[in-house]
Amino acid sequence: MRKQGSPSLQGEPSGEAFSRKPITARELARMLGVSQSAVSRAFTPGASIAADLRERILKYAAEVDYQPNAIASMLSKSRTNIIGIVVSDMQNPFYPGLIEKLSRSLQRIGLQSLLFNITKGSNLEEQLSALRRYNVDAVIVISATILSGSTLSWATEGRPAILINRVIEDTNLSCVACNNVEGARAIADHFHRQGARRVAYVAGLSHTTTNRERQSGFVTRIAELGMTLSVQIEGQEYSYHAGRKAALEIAAGKSTDAIFFANDILAIGGIDALKEEAGCRVPDDILVAGFDDIPMAGWPHYNLTTFRQPVDEIVRVVVEMIEGDTSALLRAATTIRLSGELIERRSTGAEPDAE
Amino acid sequence: MRKQGSPSLQGEPSGEAFSRKPITARELARMLGVSQSAVSRAFTPGASIAADLRERILKYAAEVDYQPNAIASMLSKSRTNIIGIVVSDMQNPFYPGLIEKLSRSLQRIGLQSLLFNITKGSNLEEQLSALRRYNVDAVIVISATILSGSTLSWATEGRPAILINRVIEDTNLSCVACNNVEGARAIADHFHRQGARRVAYVAGLSHTTTNRERQSGFVTRIAELGMTLSVQIEGQEYSYHAGRKAALEIAAGKSTDAIFFANDILAIGGIDALKEEAGCRVPDDILVAGFDDIPMAGWPHYNLTTFRQPVDEIVRVVVEMIEGDTSALLRAATTIRLSGELIERRSTGAEPDAE
DNA sequence: CGCCTTGTTGCATACGGATGCAAATTGGAA
DNA sequence: TTCCAATTTGCATCCGTATGCAACAAGGCG
Does residue B287 fall inside a structural domain? Predict the structure, then answer.
């Protein structure tokens, strides 16, 4: 242990002053002639301490700019007040908004967000081992992909974990997701109302649960309505370029009245390809719909009909799960489905309400 | 302190098994018949320990799934290996990409990112006090606005702080920024080459350094080239809607050949307004340029000429500053300017190279 | 007026790992 | 063979806060 040098008179040439160590509870206590416990209690709501003592301590603490050291507090309590947020794709504009709202809501109840950016290439286990070492109070996973359920179980072992927009049954992981089947069916119904009969589906990452649910919901409803599935394109990723490529394939193939892209960023890439490269008009020649309702979907050039994910509600539910008895989450993984909302815009020929 | 119950034979009804506490270095040491120091040293690169002992410990640790507790380590060392990232605007698509690259690079050298999402409305001091309590090793500020230099100095007191895309002189804060003046001048030159003579500037948040530099760089160069500044619009924010609004104002006013928007998201809002609402053609009737080179700038509908910020280099420099002797950053705040690159696209009538 | 209850306060120690220092071991040189 | 230096190892203590427990004070009641 490096001993803090006693304040020598033959002082350092100055300059050292601003990086001095922060004051500790013990020091503060000594200055006030009370015990360190008293200081700790003053900062602990509900602790057994007289009101006037607490006030005196807090006042003096403010004067000398004392704040309890969070690290030390983490060590002695079990809680860190840190939530691990596992992310793998911030390129999809849907996620930044979600992450922002999430971290704000968490902050509001005193929780900080520790970001774990998972990359496809490298060693996942190594990347996630930090998640375990940091003793986060809970883990929120916003990665639709990449991590297998078993990897996640390992990484979050012993602490509550909530997946957003991904559902894994029979693990100890809780899930909060949009009702993708409902959304996909709503899109199918809407296509039908708009007169489409031959429709196509463009997948995002094929093996993700979001994709599978949207796909099966759509395809099933299409059949129920007596519509034809003209093309179905498998996907490697949820991206602008993937959407573009898929749209060109569809435009080159058999006639199609409407395309449902697995999410908005795909759909936007698709619209651009259709308009700029394939020479199609949207919605005159072909209808297009997406899923999520990212900001760009509302831009006039796209005006994309989509199924809006209930982001605020997702955030609310996740935060409630964490705020509530987290140990309950450990006993019994919960899966919650939230309803979204069909947003009809011009890309499917709807006349959007003034927004 | 809650004592860890001795493993009673009359066990809990099961169920408790999966949430048992992780093993500690002391326990591991006892099992191996070595001291806790040995375990600690085995995990400390360069520590004084025999190679075979280290190997034996690491091997056994892997077997019983032991990992050093990061919190405890933070308390005894001075380092937390956590970098605070202060963000205030994730809506601007420029930032998610930056944040993602930054956090990845930090992770690569063993640093985690703790997110501090600063909201305009509420009590900043309170929001930032967490930044101090968590003892982060350094702070990276990606907020072009909101926080005053003095607030930041207070919040980061005693630890290295680096502002990205914002320059504050005469504080203890280091800065890494794009050369905004160079970029703005490049845009002015480009406008001139493309034949524009009456040009407009649309500000983002007026009082931010990025805005001031881009504005003065542009306006100065305009004058040097003998061009006229037809309009100059002050701004409240860097957003799609602000860009839209500004474009409409300009379209309604005196004739203008070209508009330089303070960043891409403004420009994109501007293009939409010009095309869809004002009935102007871009670039036929008016040229448009932005700044940043966000992904949407490359989308065919916008095809926006812009000045690309050297994101990778910014990240590299910031990480190097942190990786290097951080204490040096405390003694002498450094300001680094990086060069960007003019990306000529169709919004100014340029024929883009095939990308 | 004495005893018990309720409320405060301090003491001691725990949390889990890092590290200065001394003790122990080994190897090599004289 | 003897002694010193280099390397390893363990002991003890520290990091800064939280909290069980005991001591202590004040107030109420019989």
Answer: yes
Q: Determine the Cα angle at A250 with ends A287 and A228, to 5°.
A: 65
Average pLDDT over residues B262-290: 95
B192 and B172 in a common domain: no
Output the CA angle A180-A138-A117, nearest 5 degrees.
70
Q: Are A267 and A304 in contact (CB under 8 A)?
A: yes
CB B281 within 8 A of CB B222: no
Q: Please judge whether A117 and B130 are an interchain contact, meaning their C-beta atoms are less than 8 angstroms apart.
A: no
- On whether residue A11 sits in a domain, the answer given is no
Measured CA to CA, the distance from residue B75 to residue A266 in angstroms comes to: 47
Closest nt by CA–C1' to B47 = C19
Q: Is residue A77 part of a domain?
A: no
Q: Provide the CATH number for the domain around residue B28.
A: 1.10.260.40
Count up the domains in chain B and report the number. Answer: 3
Is there a domain that residue B273 lies in? Answer: yes
A322 and A267 inside one domain: no
Average predicted confidence (pLDDT) for chain A: 88
User: Is A6 a residue whose pLDDT tops 50?
Assistant: no
Which residues put CB within 7 Å of chain C, the nucleic strand? Answer: A 1-2, 33-38, 41, 48-51, 53, 72, 75-76; B 1, 3-4, 21, 24-26, 36-37, 40-41, 43-44, 47, 68-69, 72-73, 75-77
**pLDDT of A228 higher than 90:** yes
**Long-range contact list for A70-77, CB < 8 A, 24+ apart?**
A70/B130, A70/B133, A70/B134, A70/B135, A71/B71, A71/B74, A71/B75, A71/B80, A71/B134, A71/B135, A72/B75, A74/A135, A74/B71, A75/B71, A75/B72, A75/B75, A76/B1
Please choose, from the candidates A30, A33, A137, A1, the residue with its C-alpha nearest in 3D space to the C-alpha of residue A78.
A137
pLDDT number for residue B1: 40
How confident is the model at residue B4, as a pLDDT? 37
For the stretch B50-65, pLDDT in tens is 999 999 999 999 999 9
**Residue B7 to residue A210: CA distance in whole angstroms:** 43
Token pair, residue A260, equals: 């449902």
Lowest mean pLDDT among A81-85, B123-127, B196-200: B123-127
Of B70, B90, B113, the CB nearest to A115: B113
Is the confidence at residue A351, as pLDDT, over 50?
A: yes
Q: What is the pLDDT of residue B147?
A: 74
Q: Which comes out higher in pLDDT, residue A348 or A129?
A: A348
| Tokens at A207, concatenated | 């093996």
A69 touches strand D (CB under 7 A): yes
Q: By three-state DSSP, how is residue B340 classified?
A: coil
Q: Which residues of A touch B330 (CB under 8 A)?
A: 18-19
Residues B186 and B301 in one domain: yes
Which of B142, B91, B144, B155 shows the shortest CA–CA distance to B113? B142
The bases of strand D with some atom under 7 A from any protein CB are 7-20
Gap from A301 CA to chain B (nearest CA, Å): 7
* Domain assignment of residue B122, given as a range: 82-179+311-340
**Residue B172 belongs to a domain with what CATH number?**
3.40.50.2300
Q: CA of B121, closest CA in chain A: separation in Å?
A: 12
